[in-house]
Amino acid sequence: MLHIDIISVVPDLLESPFSHSIMKRARDRGLLEVDVINLREYAVNKYGQVDDYAFGGGAGMVMMVEPVDRCIADLKVKRNYDEVIYMSPDGELLDQPLANRLSLTGNLIILCGHYKGVDERIRQHLITREVSIGNYVLSGGELAAAVLVDAIGRLLPGVLNDETSALSDSFQDGLVAPPVYTRPADYQGWPVPDVLLSGHEAKIAEWRLQQAIERTKERRPDIWQDFENQEGKH
Ligand code: SAH
Fold first, then answer.
1. At the fourth CATH level, which superfamily is domain 2-153?
2. CATH of 170-233, one of 3.30.1370.100, 1.10.1270.20, 1.20.970.10, 3.40.190.10
3. Which of 79, 93, 125 lies closest to 222 in space, CA to CA?
4. How far is the CA of 112 from the centre of ligand 1 (A)?
5. What is the location of CATH 3.40.1280.10 in the chain?
6. Atom of ligand 1 at shortest distance to CA of 112?
7. What confidence tens digit (pLDDT) does each residue in 115-164 have?
8. Average pLDDT across the chain, whole number
9. Confidence of residue 1 (pLDDT cuts 50, 70, 90)
10. 92-102 burial: b if 16+ Cβ within 10 Å, else e
11. 13, 61, 86, 87: which to mutate for ligand 1, most atoms within 8 A of CB?
12. Which residues' Cβ are closer than 6 Å to ligand 1?
């Protein structure tokens, strides 16, 4: 079971992403537990203040150290955490290997920033890992945290019904996924490749591998390079 505590100033943003479909199933099956903690419960005054002006001036508010420190300290009373993650545009880029690694942990904290970001001392003293979901800036860390939790949660054993289906997704074997089709076999003159209708398992597997290789070369030469280097080592 993976337990994730998400610290946020906009907890409502995180309600829906984990209440449907595969994330809901993961929680219903007791494989994933997600708690969203409202940082305002740790505000520095009765007005719910958790942010303040930046020292040195400039536009935008900065999330304060104290509420985050007290919140994390409170969480740590109950659990030992493998990582305290801060979602940040300058963090380590989220990719499949990172999602795989994090899915093997037991307890995680994810801190969502807002406004101009968080006081640097939070990052220096309280955070163990910083993760970015891409080279663009969002208005808050909540959507990024939802992406991270989804990427991790679907990998937990027992979440996807057919466990091989996560293994056959793009990136898991170093290739992007081959094309897939469903009924009808011919839609108004748009046919499905014959081999998929042949019932010949070995031929289908071979075709899928070939397609995955061609697609990876064509669409993601960067990933193809890594794949070739890996294969060369074996
Ligand atoms: N001033 C900061 C951006 C703050 S955006 C800078 O230029 O780096 C506000 C918050 O959104 C951040 O604290 C972070 O938690 C979140 N965020 C924005 N873009 C993100 C991204 N690409 N990946 C992960 N988190 C992101």
1. SPOUT methyltransferase, trefoil knot domain (3.40.1280.10)
2. 1.10.1270.20
3. 93
4. 8
5. 2-153
6. 15
7. 899 999 999 999 999 999 999 999 999 999 999 999 999 999 999 987 66
8. 96
9. very high
10. eebebebbeeb
11. 87
12. 87-90, 112-114, 116-118, 132-134, 136-138, 140-141, 144
Q: Within the chain, which residue ranges are assigned CATH 1.10.1270.20? A: 170-233
Tell me: the pLDDT tens digits for 49-104? 999 999 999 999 999 999 999 999 999 999 999 999 999 999 999 999 999 999 99
What's the gap in Å between 24 CA and the centre of ligand 1? Answer: 27
3-class SS letters over the chain: CEEEEEEECCHHHHCCCCCCHHHHHHHHCCCEEEEEEEHHHHCCCCCCCCEEECCCCCCCEEECHHHHHHHHHHHHHHCCCCEEEEEEEEEEECCHHHHHHHHCCCEEEEECCECCCECHHHHHHCCCEEEECCCCCCCECHHHHHHHHHHHHCCCCCCCCCCHHHHCCCCCCCCCCCCCCCCCCEECCEECCHHHHCCCHHHHHHHHHHHHHHHHHHHCHHHHHHHHHHHHHC
